[in-house]
Amino acid sequence: MKINCIGTGTMGSTTRGNQSILIDDILFDIGSGVVKKLEEYKFKTKDINYLLITHAHADHFVDLPNLLIGRSIRNENNNLLHIICGKGIREKVVQLFQLCFGDGVEDKYIDIEEKFNIKFIELSNEETFEDQNIKITAYELMHGGCKPILGYILEKEGKNIGYATDTILCDNVNKICQKSDIAFLDANNINATKSHMSLDDVVKMQKENHKCKVCAIHRGDYSHEKYLNIKFPEDGEIIEL
Ligand SMILES: [Zn+2]
Ligand SMILES: [Zn+2]
Fold first, then answer.
1. What share of the chain is helix, strand, coil (3-state, %, to 5)?
2. Alpha carbon 176 to chain centroid distance?
């Protein structure tokens, strides 16, 4: 399995794009600039069948109109796009479209599912979505006052891929690491904040979960020492699992 690191940065990073990973037809997060990055790396947005949104901050969510309208303009809406997200995210997506393209028409996006051939699957803590190829479990995280904020485990081809940003170090981050073969964790800065893990927190998770390959993403442009067992992916990097 190939995990494509589309973006590995956090807000404020000048060297890397907003974090996002792509595994076959499954995209994690769609913050500003992600669609152009996908195109730059020669991926076709029409091939994405599942989109996992962690939360509604700009660096995880606001490129969704570019994705959906781009597919629509190019008549690439034939495949249903499953949008897996927290409770209330559908409403925020409608608000985003209304703000950007509402043109004063109050209910323009009331039928957003039919317009773009999408389906929202809103999950709460430890709820799952499953079809013949994949299983996705949501885990509630802690990210300042932001709600909903989810991490995920994707089960595919006998492997578990964990994804936990943005968050402070909490029980569910540990749970994601315990259950995953590889986990992408919030390494926002050297020091923890009220909304984000630190690099030290990522190191701690790696030490406590030896079986999990830990990747530090959502990284600011700080310099750091090398850690033998932690990966620091760059944009465009492909990780084989
Ligand atoms: Zn955030
Ligand atoms: Zn973020």
1. 25, 30, 45
2. 14
Q: Is pLDDT at 37 greater than 90 in this prediction?
A: yes
Q: Are the C-beta atoms of residues 213 and 181 closer than 8 Å to each other?
A: yes
* Per-domain residue ranges of the chain: 2-240
Token pair for residue 19? 């974090």
CATH superfamily of 2-240: Ribonuclease Z/Hydroxyacylglutathione hydrolase-like (3.60.15.10)
pTM of the model: 0.97
How far apart CA 35 and CA 70 sit, in angstroms, is: 9
Longest dimension (CA), the chain: 55
Distance (Å, rounded) from C-alpha 87 to C-alpha 68? Answer: 20
Ligand at minimal distance from the CA of 10 is 2
Residues near ion ligand 1 (Cβ under 5 Å): 57, 166
Which residue in this structure is represented by tokens 């559908």?
90
Q: Which two three-digit tokens encode residue 115?
A: 């317009």
Tens digits of residue pLDDT in 78-130: 999 999 999 999 999 999 999 999 999 999 999 999 999 999 999 999 999 99
Distance, C-alpha 224 to centroid of its chain: 24
Can you tell me the distance from the alpha carbon of 94 to that of 24, in angstroms, rounded to the nearest whole number? 27
57 CA distance to ligand 2 centroid (A)? Answer: 7
